[in-house]
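Please check this:
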Amino acid sequence: MIVFGACVAVPSVCQEAIGREFGLDFEQRGLLTTARMGALLASLLTVGYLGDRRSKRGFLVGGLATMAVGLAASALSLGYPTLLGASALSGAGKGVMEALVNPLVAQLTPRGSARALNVINGLFSVGLVVAAISTGEILQAGGGWRLPFWVWVIPALLCGAMFITRGYPAPAPVETHQATAARFLRQPLFWLLFAGMVMGGGCEAGLTAWGPNFAEHELGASARSGAWVMVLYGVFMALGRFASGVLLARITPLRLMIGSAVACALSTLALRFVGSLWGAWLLFALGGLFVACFWPTILSVASDELAAGSAHLFSLLAAAGIGGCVVFPWAMGALGDAFGLRNGVLILPASMVIQVVVMGLAAYAVAQREGGGLPCPTDETS
């Protein structure tokens, strides 16, 4: 997850330098993230479907190797079309990790999955921070945007080699998987969580993809100062996920997410009006803190209420989150070209207002289920 986070941060921090070299407008820069996320989505759905049927070992090793090849291809790109293809290739490798790591953790920790998932996803944020600092320093020293891509090729390959050495839970019988999938797809709660993943994933991707670029373009920050937007965002996202693991022992997951959505809406709305680099650092940090809980906590609620540790369930919900990741960075860039990047960020608070409504309805659905108003499929599947 640290390597995964790093491979997300590097293209974002390098985005301004890449745009200058290839003469890209905001929409074209946003499409780099969209290509990466689109390939991630296709890979995620395919591997998530197969992950309950076959051993996870080969998929995890192959996914990390594909990430490494995508990073190397990005570093070797001589034009925008080649860079788009390399971004898609690295996204395909990331899709394997997204499809299998979270359900594997849920399988290994059937009790307390919310805390475990927040911790493991907190390590993703650690990767964001480490890569953002190192990439910013490389760019500030004049090392060129291609060098940071090369730096993370070796760690990706080493992690892939480590996955060869581990043992994994046995795949579920196909009949059990099909029955479980049919059951959770009929539940209104699934579709509410699906919508919540779109909003949460999209907001997270928008902050990640445009943070450094916002600081450099709107506030005249240097490459190093722009990278520190990502550093602070990643640090506070990690803190948010680790803190969520603690808070979930005291409050319900859905109550945590409703409060986080309100706070995230206010923080991201303020980006429209921020006038200083210090203010941008603070607001992106708060955005990372409050957006942190959605992805792992929604997956935990789904595991607890719908189908424990199902890779297919997790992949469908993660696909919803990735769908948000595909649309939001492009939409922010398109709005930035048309109306200015400050107006483009208004997509983020709007998504959080919708998130409050969706999580409130999900809380009602869970309360109805626990009160006996709806059948609980988890009891049957477990």
